[in-house]
Every structure is written in C-alpha cells, then in structure tokens.
C-alpha cells in the first residue's frame, strides 16, 4: 500500500512539475501583457470630489502610459460600502482598481462595529498618492462670519444647528471640532462632500466640513464662505483663512488622503507595475500642477509604504473617534 502511494505520487508529480516550474514565468508574462483590456477605476464618491478628480487625472495618465483605456466609475453611497465591496469581489487581475480615500480604507473601521468588507485583508495596496486639508464652510448668506460666531450660535442653541456629513471621515472630523468647542449639532448624512456642500450653499444645513476640492468652486462663486482650515497650515490659495489650530483648537489636524488599491490576491507583478507607474506619475510635473490646484500635498509611495500608512491611519482615526465620543454604529 505504501509503495502504491509513493508510486502514485511520483507518477502525478511528473506532469505537474513543468507546470509548477513555469508558474513564475506565467505570472511575469501576465504582468508584461497587462492591461489586456480596459481597466475600471472605482470611486466611492460622486463627481466633484477630490477622489473623483484624482481618479480622472490618474486615469488619463495611466492610459497614456499603458496604451489601454482606464475608465472611472462612480459608485457613491452607503458609507462607501458599495464601491468597496465591488472592488473586493472583482477578479484579482488588475482590471478593477479602487481610488480610495481614508473613509472606506481607515475611518469606517473607527465608526462601524462591523463592515461588509475588510479594508486590509480584501485589498492589495498599490500606491499612496496625496493628501489634502479639510475646510469648514458656511453658506454665503450665513450670519456666521467667523468660527467664533458659529460656536457662539451653537452654544446659544444647543443641538439646533445642523451640519452636512459627506462621509465617516467628515463626521468624525466635525464631531471632534464640536467636542473641542463644547457644543453639539445635528449630523445630516450625504453620499459625499459635493452634495453636502451643494446643500450648504442652498442653506439646507448650517455648516459643513469637506475637502477643499468640493468647497472651492462654490466658495469662489460667492455661494459659500470658508471659515477655517482643518490642517496644520493655511491654504496657499486663501492665505487669509486661519487654521483651527490658530483659533485655539489644540492639535486639531484632519486631512483627507487618496490612494490606489486593487483586489486582494492581484498578482504581485501587476501590483508592482501599477504601483511604480502611479508613483512616477505623482512625482512628475503634471501631478504637481494638478495637486497645486487642489491645494494638496503629494506623498507618493509604493505598496509597502501604503500598507503601513493605512494601518497607522486606522489607529489614528479610531483614536479621533474615541476622543470625539462617537460610539460605533
């Protein structure tokens, strides 16, 4: 019986051996021919947001580099669950990518008891790209000319003011601001920062925290007013707007970041090829000019850099949520 088993294994191993030996070559061949068809870049927010504009810029750059179509697909809603699940369930061949912000990849861990996807295990990190400051805005018609005016009104009317919340990140950032100010307000959820700021311009909410890209057009059109920057330095495009740190909100620092992910188990060779291309793009002059318009900061890095950064951000956002007193949903 033992002889039979050994003989059977030897017999089976002979035809399998060439297959096993050629597996790395097959993987390299797949990477060399990648992409073999149009690539889909999924974004979890609607058009008009920083993530969306970055995805479209990156798609054009990758298309020129690889000679294949890169198509942006917006799948907003459900706290980015829809988009994240779509990428996590996609074939791991590099033809479906996730241009993701901190909300689906870090902040949701801090806000929800359970997620329909795992932001670490279900994705292969490809490239870290850039970050941008959040801004606090009010309608142009608002009587609140400063952050101090907004805080005084909130203190005089506990729980009466409302704010637009375009994602888990914006809710945590806003609640942390309210906690430090010693006031409360009602969160009104939106599918992204762009619709939240649109309603802000119409006066449906009293204030909103958003990325600068979503706030810029309406602010420049005179429909909203930016009161403060949530990062650690002022905007180069609006140097008269103070940071919350300058206004006495000690150590207050909230930024959005954007990075590129693929489904887990995507071949390393394809991930490396994509990652190298994305990092090179974001270290180039075209990206520098693009990010300057969004008032962001480039911090390009490859898969290993992004993975460690993501793990650190999960801890940071979880600590911020705990400090703001936000219970997990």
Shape: globular
According to CATH, the homologous superfamily of the largest domain is Bordetella uptake gene, domain 1
What is the correct CATH architecture of the largest domain? 3-Layer(aba) Sandwich
Here the CATH topology of the largest domain equals D-Maltodextrin-Binding Protein, domain 2
CA(first)-CA(last) distance = 59 Å
Helices and strands in order:
Elements: H1 2-33, E1 39-43, H2 50-66, E2 70-74, H3 81-88, E3 96-101, H4 102-111, E4 123-139, H5 147-156, E5 162-165, H6 168-181, E6 186-189, H7 193-201, E7 207-211, H8 212-220, E8 224-229, E9 255-263, H9 268-282, H10 285-294, E10 296-301, H11 303-324
Parallel strand pairs: 1-2, 1-3, 5-6, 5-7
Antiparallel strand pairs: 3-9, 4-7, 4-8, 4-9, 4-10
Helix pairs in contact: 4-11, 6-11
């Amino acid at each position: 019986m033992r002889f039979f088993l050994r003989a059977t294994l030897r017999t089976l191993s002979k035809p399998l051996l060439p297959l096993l030996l050629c597996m790395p070559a097959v993987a390299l061949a797949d990477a060399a021919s990648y992409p073999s068809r149009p690539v889909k870049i999924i974004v979890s927010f609607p058009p008009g947001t920083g993530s969306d504009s970055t995805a479209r810029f990156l798609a054009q750059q990758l298309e020129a580099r690889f000679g294949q179509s890169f198509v942006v697909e917006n799948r907003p809603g459900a706290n980015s669950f829809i988009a994240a699940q779509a990428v996590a369930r996609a074939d791991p061949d590099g033809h479906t990518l996730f241009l993701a912000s901190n909300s689906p990849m870090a902040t949701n861990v801090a806000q929800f008891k359970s997620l329909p996807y795992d932001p670490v295990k279900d994705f292969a990190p490809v490239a870290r790209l850039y970050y941008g400051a959040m801004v606090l805005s009010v309608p142009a018609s608002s009587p609140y000319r400063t952050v101090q005016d907004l805080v005084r009104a909130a203190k005089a009317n506990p729980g009466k003011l409302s704010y637009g919340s375009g994602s888990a990140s914006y809710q945590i950032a806003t609640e942390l601001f309210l906690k430090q100010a010693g006031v409360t307000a009602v969160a009104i959820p939106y599918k992204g920062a762009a619709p939240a700021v649109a309603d802000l311009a119409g006066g449906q909410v009293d204030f909103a925290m958003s990325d600068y890209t979503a706030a810029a057009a309406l602010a420049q059109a005179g429909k909203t007013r930016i009161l403060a920057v949530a990062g650690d330095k002022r905007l180069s495009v609006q140097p008269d707007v103070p940071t919350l740190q300058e206004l006495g909100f000690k150590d207050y620092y909230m930024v959005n970041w954007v990075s590129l992910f693929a489904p887990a188990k995507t071949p390393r060779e394809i991930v490396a090829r994509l990652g190298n291309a994305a990092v090179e793009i974001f270290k180039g002059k075209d990206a520098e000019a693009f990010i300057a318009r969004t008032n962001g900061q480039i911090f390009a890095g490859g898969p290993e850099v992004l993975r460690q950064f993501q793990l650190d951000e999960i801890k940071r956002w979880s600590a911020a949520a705990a400090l703001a007193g936000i219970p997990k949903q």
